[in-house]
Write a structure and sequence with these properties.
homodimer; 696 residues; alpha+beta; Herpes Virus-1; Signal recognition particle alu RNA binding heterodimer, srp9/1; 9-stranded mixed beta sheet; 38% helix; globular; GlyRS-like_core (chains A, B)
């Protein structure tokens, strides 16, 4: 049983023991969309069986300008990254495919709402009060620490020192250690009491659940200080993770940069329902930047302050089991599921199961949730995610917001552990309800019942003429109290009235709190009421995608290096999302190649296939190696033979094999490969292989 | 000569008279990208010759959810808009076409840099100090006015009152007046002295050029008060238009939301140059949101606080006349040019001219600028902009930043007047230079000269051994003074040295400010220096697109209403950017239509053609009318005949004509129309017309 599972288990136990956790569990749920870096360490291997060497990969990503830290020439700002040309194109291709796969395929209503959001909206949604982390300040140095991270680091370091003192082998993640050393002083080799070890282990297990006061108590109790200077720290204070600003020239309209795109969609619900001609269910979708002012961002693209999200809000009738009309199409999709009970039992063993079965046995709450899980997997596989490094993990009860029915995360396995990249939650009617209550806007569906609803109920009739003179100024209060009587009570009172000719009703603030009403004033009868319109607040199923995290994980999944030369990295993006589809390589800078290159490039462009010419003076081999790192799947070489007979060689990035054929055949093959109609194997079978130059 | 031209003329004169304007002209240039609503009133007509009725159009745009004010259920926030499904799709299609037309066509290096920007970067760029407007506060009511707008409104209102008092006819823009009335009290009919009228006219003419002090003096001099309450106002203070926030948990890193995407591109220059294998020229590009905290946003999408920009930074060698390798391809493109001299002469008459000629005669400064003007026009026409409502206006000298060489705006004619939608400026080496000077980062190009440069120059040699003992602590100062001598002075001193055996050099702070050096200490000779590397800071040509403004103007350009029924609006978007390409309309809800609809929709989707089914119970005519307003160019009707023989009718939005043919023929026609290979006229000629139902 690995450690994180023990933690989770303890956490769960703790949650059950202490119902007061309900609040911090909501709090945790607010953060859930942000970050869930499962620290499970496991050696990650490439598809060729090599160990993923993160530092080589990071160097490639930087060298080829996929993304780099922002504002580097000004010293940088942590948690902010810029995408260079290949990263930007990769991101655009992922977004484009996302839009086709979800929005167009299902006629979703895409909206683009503003990032600037006034205070009141996020106050209502709960973000102003709950979207926060706890931080501690060193009053002397001014340094700021995220309280839970600090406690975690210090106690882990002490436990490590204890293990060393006991002469136990300490498994070390070297890179992590190297980073830590910059922050934390050398681990002290000090043996701890067994009881202290147990206490520390328990604290670490519960670390996600402490509130500020509790973290402060831990810091005092265990004398936790600034690890670098040993200086004492101030007690933890809440730090809201939203970037605050002020809208307009007067300072009376505080606002924030949105922490998620969801709120903008909820506020537009009414207009969207009308646009959809009042038809339910429907989904809205939004692709855009969101912002979180992390206290101490780390782990590269996985925890950043400004990031691209793609979110779907699928609005569904809460009655009728949340069926989905297209569930049939996906029901045989096999998913790798890590369910709540398995986690509780202390295991992380996933189970292969069709989504049809998972919904049937109630493991996944409903068809709509299940439908999206399957669609999420289809999308991730399409862009090139390695299926063996994808799992769906069900949230534990205490991870979810109190209102959520069920929640699954699509997690991707990377060198940082299992990373939450897509969350798929049932947000119930929570958001629409709070905004409706706050503003009075009818964020509801009103539909004519196919059959009017006939309701048998106890109705109370007051004789208003006699009522007023009798109760005078208290009339309204008494009337309201009577109207508020439950059906149950009405039934009982009807009997009283029949038997005694009078009833007694509790009315706060009138007389002694009890009021007597006789037959003259009141009648209670069972009658039928007919309801023609049904009004309800839809529930929301929300698949929420962190595009940056998916992009980073994808790069790790498609990365490998040539077995014959480890320095030569390759990114095997599927053609559909590769930043550039085709590299055009003239043998040299010779003028006779230019018209051919121009014709090829313009023909490819007209076919909508992105391509680049590399006519630098480097050898053909070097130029291809560079583009293997950029993930360009295809290469066309233009040589002197091409000038003579308009034949070209076409090279496959992954196998480095080449074929040679006429211009038309080559272009047709490129199109067919990019569209996914044929594989390289198909092409190799039908076009003659070429085994000439790829001079290194 | 219309009034705005008089104003411009006066402004220009003012600028020439008063060189102190240079600063406010920089200031104005900083704002130039933001807003330039030319108030020239002119009746705008649709392509069918109808007057554009803005209120009908606004109602359509709102009804069909192209865009609506954000946070409406919370009372709204001015200057913020949400795009609904058709607006969002229109925006995505415009951006997609932009990317193809510019980025892919020219191998530009697209980047995606962060919106959050630390203080120091925007301090260096000049935005912290200069990107501001002047505002006045009413201390009693707390209301805030943009100072220049307030002076303008009040003086214009007084001039109007004067005209009425003189019995002159006042031309009234009713809508503008209606809006004003809400803010300004009833115009007082008061006759003014002729001298006062002249003074007011002059002030209005110069209104863009006053700084805060001057605006304050005007407010005092003319006793300008809060128009609603007549209360006095505080003096104007500068209000920076950037949204401020704080990055990270400590408050020591102030930051802003970027006001333009350009800075992020400049900061990445060095990495991009390396990515481009040191080859010049090249362009970077970026599509993303920018932010401006307008004091009082108005004019709908034309002046907003959060907006989508698409910017290109084309880096070019300042030497060699800024030629462009592809200028030849565009040189015959005819543009409608409104040049600086024509504006100076008091006219707004545009001239049709090929860009080749404009560059040749020096009207447009260089080929690169000219190339982009032509490409901008091609882009705007592709998305459906009416060529007769497009002009390129050259900036007046005082509109440009002090460093700019030339600047042209693509302006679109709308019901708000001529609107600047694309700016195309030569920013020279300004931005790269200031960031280089601030950070020391080598934002330069270093290239090996094809031929080494041999420079004859006067070199000074000091005998360091004797120099030190002689000047002791002053050695460094004297040495620096000698090194700093100009070539001219060196030549003169060489002669002195030869003639007198000694020279006298000015050295501030040493002795009496003059130092004598003899032949023992110094030698000055003419020698040759050989320079192998050339280092230069590239100039930047910047086409900058306001996507929201283009989108709004486009909607006005393609809007018209059916002559036989003015209530039926039509948006004639070209198929390539229409939000939805095809509407599928079953005759009724009959079950037999469903399989046909499913087959059509999935075939269209596979061909990448967006489509929607409208199976609501409204009549076919009503359903088509709704989609005419959404700008859907094509409609396919599925009727009982379709069930029998798989033939369908295809309807053209603009003519409402229909043809009927087999499924394959219809789908092929749709593809051909959407791809722009055929026009509706072509289709009508080859497929049989259908004149059956379009029941209203």
């Amino acid at each position: 049983m690995n450690r994180s599972v023990v933690f989770r288990l303890l956490r769960q136990r703790n949650h059950k023991l202490n119902p007061a956790r309900a609040f911090s569990s909501t709090h945790a749920a607010f953060r859930a969309k942000a970050v869930k870096v499962d620290s499970t360490m496991a050696t990650l291997t490439t598809k060729t069986g090599q160990t993923v060497d993160r530092s080589s990969l990071e160097s490639l990503v930087r060298r080829r300008l996929f993304f780099t830290p922002s504002f580097e020439i000004y010293g940088g700002v942590s948690g902010l990254y810029d995408y260079g040309p290949p990263g930007c194109s990769l991101q655009a291709n992922i977004v484009d495919l996302w839009r086709k796969h979800f929005v167009l395929e299902e006629d979703m209503l895409e909206v683009d709402t503003t990032m600037l959001t006034p205070h009141e909206v996020l106050k209502t949604s709960g973000h102003v009060d709950k979207f926060a982390d706890w931080m501690c300040k060193d009053p002397k140095t001014g340094e700021i620490f995220r309280a839970d991270h600090l406690v975690e680091e210090v106690l882990e370091s002490r436990l490590k020192g204890d293990k060393e003192a006991r002469g136990q082998k300490v498994v070390v993640d070297e890179e992590k250690e190297a980073k830590k050393k910059k922050k934390v002083k050398e681990t002290k080799v000090v043996k701890l009491d067994d009881a202290v070890v147990a206490e520390y282990e328990e604290v670490l297990a519960k670390i996600d659940n402490y509130d500020g006061d509790e973290l402060g108590q831990l810091i005092t109790k265990y004398d936790i200080r600034n690890p670098k200077t040993d200086g004492p720290l101030l007690p933890p204070v809440a730090f809201n993770l939203m970037f605050q600003t002020s809208i307009g020239p007067s300072s009376n309209m505080p606002g924030y940069l949105r922490p998620e795109t969801a709120q903008g969609q909820f506020l537009t619900f009414q207009k969207l329902l009308e646009f959809n001609q009042q038809q339910m269910p429907f989904a809205s979708a939004s692709i855009g930047k969101s912002f979180r002012n992390e206290i101490s961002p780390r782990a590269g693209l996985l925890r950043v302050r400004e990031f691209l999200m793609a979110e779907i809000e699928h609005f569904v009738d809460p009655e009728g089991g949340k069926k989905h009309p297209r569930f049939e199409e996906v029901k045989d999709t096999e998913l790798s599921l890590l369910n709540r009970d398995v986690q509780l039992s202390g295991s992380t063993k996933t189970e292969q199961m069709t989504i049809g079965k998972a919904v049937e046995i109630g493991l996944v709450d409903n068809e709509t949730l299940g439908y999206f899980l399957a669609r999420i997997q289809q999308f991730l596989l399409k862009i090139g995610i390695d299926k063996s490094k994808l799992r769906f993990r069900q949230h534990m009860a205490n991870e979810m917001a109190h209102y959520a029915a069920d929640c699954w995360d699509a997690e991707l396995h990377t060198s940082y552990g299992w990373i939450e990249c897509v969350g798929c939650a049932d947000r119930s009617a929570y958001d629409l309800t709070v905004h409706k209550n706050k503003t009075g806007a009818p964020l509801v569906v009103r539909e004519t019942r196919p059959e009017p609803l006939r309701i048998e109920e106890w109705q109370v009739n007051l004789d208003k003429k006699k009522f007023g003179p009798r109760f005078k100024k208290d009339s309204k209060t008494v009337e309201a109290a009577v109207e508020a009587l439950s059906q149950e009570l009405r039934e009982k009172l009807a009997l009283d009235l029949q038997q005694n000719g009078k009833i007694e009703v509790d009315v706060e603030g009138v007389g002694n709190g009890k009021v007597e009403l006789d037959k003259e004033l009141v009648a209670i009868e069972k009658r039928e009421r007919v309801e023609h319109i049904r009004e309800y607040t839809p529930n929301v199923i929300e698949p929420s995608f962190g595009i940056g995290r998916i992009l980073y994980s994808l790069i790790e999944h498609v990365y490998w290096s040539r077995p014959d030369d480890e320095a030569r990295g390759v990114l095997s993006f599927p053609p559909v999302i590769a930043p550039t589809k085709v590299l055009l390589v003239p043998l040299s800078n010779h003028a006779s190649f230019r018209p051919l290159l121009q014709r090829l490039t313009s023909k490819l462009r007209r076919a909508g296939i992105s391509n680049r010419v590399d006519d630098s003076s480097a050898s053909i081999g070097k130029r291809y190696a560079r583009n293997d790192e950029l993930g360009t799947p295809l290469g066309i070489t233009v040589d002197f033979q091409s000038v003579k007979d308009q034949t070209y060689t076409l090279r496959d990035r992954d196998t480095t094999k080449q074929v040679r054929a006429s211009e038309d055949e080559i272009l047709q093959a490129v199109k067919s490969l990019v569209d996914g109609d044929e594989t390289w194997e198909d092409i190799r079978k039908r076009l003659p292989e070429f085994t000439g130059q790829e001079a290194e």
